[in-house]
């Protein structure tokens, strides 16, 4: 009989992870029927330095995946159809999906436009099963948006997220409390939340490849090797994850960046690009009714070293002019004379809400957004 310690007794929460299937590409295939059934790649220019944002399942069969260079994707599948992203369409679909999720619980934590955690512990207190809620959500998303999603149901975020990936696309998978420990055992350690490629390598070097392997290391050993993260690894290897679903993920910054197909050498052209980005950032701040206090610029050089330089002001930064005024000095501080750059970006952080001249704590406004479904 397997040893059952108190650590193995799962919590009694009910968590659902909902993840849209090939989201950007699916929106394109929904809106342009001629693209259905074809390898569709949403992303940057395959003739430049663009990357794949999302690709359809038809394209995945060629080994194409997100974050791959668009040029590489075209080599793998020359007949693929490249589509530039239409963020406004994706945001609209995302708003619809999040509104559906919020009709079941206010404890919805979006991780990006196309995925979210829900804590339905309260919603199931009357005997309703979490799996039935998840099934209904998938049905409603399909009927109301014409898109498909997958869902995972379990007793914490770690397992709910792994479960949503298990039967993709348009899948539903449940990992009940008594199965969590067994489900995790054969998985490779890289599937665990917080175990990145560098950790995978370090663990492989000592013969640890699966979660079962990881369980052979004591908590003390893991902490000795990985510090605080070691304690986390010890827990997740046993299906322990106490992270709450946090509905008010606060926006920390507004920014944009550009990678140039040809490195920029001329300082005045760098400045023109930064000023154009300042316009975009100011428009975005205005639409979110936000003001910032810190302007940062990010510079990446041809050898991929990256620097950021920031300037903080006491007054609210809202307008293009206020951002632009800081750019020449920030550029001087980050780019040495005669240096060329491959990427430039601007970020405004230290955000506060501004409404009709008065400031409201951003937290309050986000709370409104959660409580008053759009
Ligand atoms: Mg997705």
Please specify the SSE layout and strand pairing:
Blueprint: E1 15-20, H1 23-31, E2 40-43, E3 52-55, H2 57-60, H3 70-76, E4 81-83, H4 87-102, E5 108-112, E6 115-119, H5 130-145, E7 149-154, H6 157-164, E8 172-174, H7 180-184, H8 197-205, H9 211-214, H10 219-226, H11 228-236, E9 253-264, H12 267-287, E10 290-300, E11 306-317, H13 320-324, H14 327-334, E12 341-349, E13 352-355, E14 358-360, H15 362-371
Parallel strand pairs: 2-4, 7-8
Antiparallel strand pairs: 1-6, 1-7, 2-3, 5-6, 9-12, 10-11, 10-12, 10-13, 13-14
Helix pairs in contact: 4-5, 10-11
The structure holds magnesium ion.
Mean pLDDT, as a whole number? 88
What would the principal axes of the Cα set say about the shape? globular
CA gyration radius, whole angstroms: 23 Å
Please tally the helical runs, counting DSSP H or I stretches of 4 or more residues: 15
> Which cofactor or ligand species appear?
magnesium ion
**CATH classification class of the domain at 253-371:** Alpha Beta
Order of helices and strands: EHEEHHEHEEHEHEHHHHHEHEEHHEEEH
Question: Main β-sheet: number of strands, strand sense, barrel status?
Answer: 6 strands, antiparallel
The residue fraction in helices comes out at 25-40%
| Structural class based on helices, strands and sheet pairing | alpha+beta
Q: Work out the number of β strands.
A: 14
* Name given to the CATH architecture of the domain at 253-371: 2-Layer Sandwich
Indicate the proportion of strand residues: 15-25%
What is the rounded distance between the termini? Answer: 52 Å
Low-confidence stretches: 1-10, 356-374
What is the CATH fold-level name of the domain at 253-371?
Answer: Dna Ligase, domain 1
Tell me which oligomeric state these chains represent: single chain
């Amino acid at each position: 009989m397997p040893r059952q310690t108190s650590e193995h007794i799962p919590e009694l929460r009910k968590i659902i992870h909902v993840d849209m299937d090939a989201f950007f590409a699916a929106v394109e295939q929904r809106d342009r029927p001629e693209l259905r059934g074809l390898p569709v790649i949403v992303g940057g220019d395959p003739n430049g330095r663009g990357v794949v944002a999302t690709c359809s399942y038809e394209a995945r069969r060629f080994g194409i995946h997100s974050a791959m260079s668009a040029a590489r994707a075209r080599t793998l599948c020359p007949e693929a159809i490249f589509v530039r992203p239409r963020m406004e369409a994706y945001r609209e679909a995302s708003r619809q999906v999040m509104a559906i999720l919020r009709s079941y619980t206010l404890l919805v934590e979006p991780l990006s436009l196309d995925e979210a955690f829900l804590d339905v512990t309260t919603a199931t207190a009357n005997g309703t099963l979490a799996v039935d809620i998840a099934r209904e959500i998938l049905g409603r998303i399909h009927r109301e948006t014409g898109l498909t999603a997958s869902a995972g149901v379990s007793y914490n975020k770690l397992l709910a997220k792994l479960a949503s990936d298990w039967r993709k696309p348009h899948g539903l998978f449940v990992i009940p409390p008594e199965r969590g420990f067994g489900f995790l055992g054969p998985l490779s350690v890289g599937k665990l939340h917080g175990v990145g490629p560098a950790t995978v390598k370090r663990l492989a070097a000592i013969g640890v490849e699966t979660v079962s392997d990881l369980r052979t290391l004591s908590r003390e050993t893991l902490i000795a090797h990985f510090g605080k993260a070691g304690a986390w690894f010890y827990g997740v290897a046993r299906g322990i994850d106490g992270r709450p679903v946090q509905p008010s993920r606060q926006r920390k910054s507004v920014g944009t960046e550009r990678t140039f197909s040809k490195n920029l050498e001329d300082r005045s052209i760098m400045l023109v690009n930064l000023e154009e980005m300042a316009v975009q950032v100011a428009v975005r701040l205005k639409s979110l009714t936000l003001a910032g206090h810190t302007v940062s610029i990010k510079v990446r050089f041809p050898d991929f070293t990256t620097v950021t330089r920031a300037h903080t002001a006491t007054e609210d930064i809202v307008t293009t002019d206020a951002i632009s005024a800081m750019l020449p000095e920030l550029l001087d501080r980050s780019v040495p004379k005669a240096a060329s750059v491959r990427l430039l970006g601007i970020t405004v952080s230290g955000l506060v809400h501004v409404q009709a001249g008065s400031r409201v704590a951003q937290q309050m406004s986000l709370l409104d957004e959660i409580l008053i479904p759009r």
